[in-house]
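Q: Hi! First time asking for a complex rather than a single chain. Here are the components, and I think there are two in total. Is that enough to go on?
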Amino acid sequence: MPDSPASVSRRRLLGTAGAAGAAALVVGGAAGAAGGAAVREGPDPLSSVGSGSVPFHGTHQAGIVQPAQAHGHLVAFDLVPQADRKAAAALLRRWSDAAAEMTQGRVPQGDESGVALDAGPSSLTITFGFGHSFFDRTGLTAKRPTALDPLPAFTADALDAKRSNGDLWVQIGADDALVAFHALRLLQKLAVGTAKPRWQMNGFNRTPGATEQPMTGRNLMGQIDGTNNPKPSDANFSTRVFVPEDRSGADAWMAGGSYAVFRRIRMLLDSWDNLSLERQERVIGRRKSDGAPLSGGTESTRADLNKVGPDGVLAIAGDAHIRVASAATNRGAAMLRRAFSYHDGFLDDGAPDAGLLFIAWQADPLKGFTPVQRKLDRGDGLSRFLRHEASGLFAVPGGCEPGEYVGQRLLEG
Amino acid sequence: MPDSPASVSRRRLLGTAGAAGAAALVVGGAAGAAGGAAVREGPDPLSSVGSGSVPFHGTHQAGIVQPAQAHGHLVAFDLVPQADRKAAAALLRRWSDAAAEMTQGRVPQGDESGVALDAGPSSLTITFGFGHSFFDRTGLTAKRPTALDPLPAFTADALDAKRSNGDLWVQIGADDALVAFHALRLLQKLAVGTAKPRWQMNGFNRTPGATEQPMTGRNLMGQIDGTNNPKPSDANFSTRVFVPEDRSGADAWMAGGSYAVFRRIRMLLDSWDNLSLERQERVIGRRKSDGAPLSGGTESTRADLNKVGPDGVLAIAGDAHIRVASAATNRGAAMLRRAFSYHDGFLDDGAPDAGLLFIAWQADPLKGFTPVQRKLDRGDGLSRFLRHEASGLFAVPGGCEPGEYVGQRLLEG
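A: Yes, that's all I need. Here is the structure of the assembled complex.
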C-alpha cells in the first residue's frame, strides 16, 4: 500500500505549523486523506541517521546486503496449534504490508502506538524466514529444501533448545532504538492468534557517526570483525549469498532467497581479558589496534598465511582464527556475516552475558557455514573463548513486489 | 591524568598513514611517549555523534543536567566482605581516573580491551553514587544524610530486592553502544576484589539525528515524555536539583551533589495498547501525536487544569497523569527526570518486559520524588498500567577536580 492515500508520514511538525495540521500529518489511519506530501517542500532536512531508508520491495529481501544497523532484534515465532497454512499466509501478508510501511517511515493503518513517531525510517529493515518445523506444520513438507536439514552438532555447542530454531524468524534492524522496538512490537501484535514468540534477542552495533568515517566494526572482544566479508561488488557475491533467480523444482519458491544461520555466541570475556594483548592477537591473527594481519600491512592487506618470521615461526599461527576461517583453507567456502553484539547483563557467576548474535547468509549452508564451522570447531584457537548457546537455520525467500507478500510463492504456489 | 604523556586518543588512522604510526596512536599504555597529539592537525573531523564530549571534572558530576544519551547502563555494586573504607576509597579513585580518561575519548592506562577504539567520546558520562548500606559497611554511619532514609512503600510497588539498592551505584550513558559497554566492563574489572555487581540494567533513548531536529523524546507507550522537565535555565533549577555548595554539617561532603531516585517501571503494554488512542490521551492528559495538553495549544503550552469543555467536562481529567504529577498540584515539588527506556525481551506470559529506567534527580527526595510519587500512587490514572519492579536511592556527591576522585570528601573527610 505504499501509495495509498491513508499512508502518512510519522514526522512531527514543530514551530508555527498549526496543531491541527500537525496532528493530521502524524496520526495514523485516523488522518485519512487529510495527510499528504504537500505540507513540506524542498529537500528533506532529516539528518542522515533518521533519513536513511532501505526499499522493502525487490528481488531480495532487505536486511541482507545492507550494513548491520545500530540496533537489532531477532525473534522467532511458533504457529499456535489452530493456525494452518492459510492463517500463516494471512500473517505473512499482514507482516509484509506493515513492514512496507514502517521501513519507509510511514504509519501502518490502524497502528496507534506512536512509539516511532517523529523519527525517520532510520534504515529500518525487516527480514522474514521459515524454519524447518514450519513445513510440517503447514502441510508443505514436500517443498522443504534439503538445505534446511538440521545443522550438524559441533563440539563447542552448548545449545539451548528453547532459544533455538522456530517456525518463523524475523530479523529487525534500525539505527534508532525506538524505531526498531516499534517494529518488533507491531509485528508481535499482528501475530496474536496465529503465532507466539518462541525466543527474542536484542543486539547492537556502533552508532553511525561515532567514528570519523565508516570503518569495519569491532566486537566485544575489541577485535575488528568483518574485514574479509564478501562485498556486493565481488564477482561471485550473488552466487555465494543468494539462491539463483531461475531456481526450479520443489524449492523454486526460494529463487532470489538466502539461507540464514543464526548462532548466539557467548564470549568468555573474563578468560579473554586475562590474555595479554600479544596473545589475543596471536589467537586472532590480526593486530587489535588496526586489524592488520600479523603477516604485515594494513587491515585491507591479504593475510600471508605462509609468512615465517626471522625466528622461524609462522607470522599467523597454525590455529589462528583468520587462518582456520579463511576461504583459502576452506575450498572457497564463504558466507556473508552480518552480526549484532549482545549484552544482557551478567550471569549467576558474575561473568558478562555478552557476545555475538552471529548471522551468516549464504546460498547453501552446506557450502557456507557448515564446512567453515566444522573446521573452526576442530582447529580454531578462538573456540575455547566462545560458547554457542543458541542456533537457528532459516530459509529466507526472495523479496516481494508491491501487492505481494514475502513467502507468497511458497504459501500459494 | 588528563595531560599525562601516556594519555592517548583511541582513534584509528586509515589511509596512507603508516601502520606503525597508527598503532602508536591507538594502542593503550604500551604506546607510551610515542603517542601524542602531533599526528593529526586541523579541525577534528569526527561527526557530531562521536565528537560530543562532556567534561568529567567540575562542581557537579556529569550525567545529571546533560540530556540522556542513546545508550545507558545502570549498575549497582556491593562491597565484598573484606573491603573496608580504605579499599572503597581506592576503588573510587581507580574509577574516577578511568572515567576521566574514557569520557574524553582516551584509553585508560593498562586498558587493552579495545572495545571503544576508533570511536570518539560519544558524550559518555559516568556518575557515581552511594547507597544507604554503604555507610554502615564503611564505618561512615555518622555521615549518612537523612535524605538517604529508605523511601516509603507505595501501593503500586512490586519491588525485587535483588535488583534494588546496593552499596555503590554507577550510571553510564553514551551515544554509542560499544563506548558505553566498554566503560561498564572496565569499571567492573576495576572493582574486582573490592566490589561485586549486585544488579545491572541496560536502557536506551532515541539516537541523535533520528528526528529532524532535537525533540522531547517518547517512551515505549508512545507518549512524549519530559515536556515539563525543569531546565537548567530555570531560575530555581540549581536549588531544586543540587545540594547547596555551602552545605555544612555531617553531610557537608554532599555539597554540589544530588540525590538520585531510580525506579525500574515496567509498562503493561498489552493492557495499554488495548485502550483506544482517545482513552490513552485522557489517561495522560496530552495528545499523543504532538504532546499538546488536552486543554489546547502545543507541546510547550502550559496545561490549563481548570479548563472545561463545551460538554461541561474537564479538558484534563481529574486523574490525568499530568494533573496529578504537576508541580502546581504538588506545592512546587519538582525533580529532574532523566530516563532510559528498557526492553529485555518478554516475560513467561508473553508480555513484553519493557518500560522505563526512571531516574529522578533532586536536592532532597523528601521534596522531590517522594511527595510526587505519593500523590501519583493514590490518584494517577496511569498507575494501573505501571509496575515499579526495582528501586534505589543514592547519594551522588558533587564532582571532583583533576587529581581528586568522586567521594573523596566523604571517604577522607
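A: The longest strand of chain B covers residues 352-362. Let me know if you'd like any chain examined more closely.
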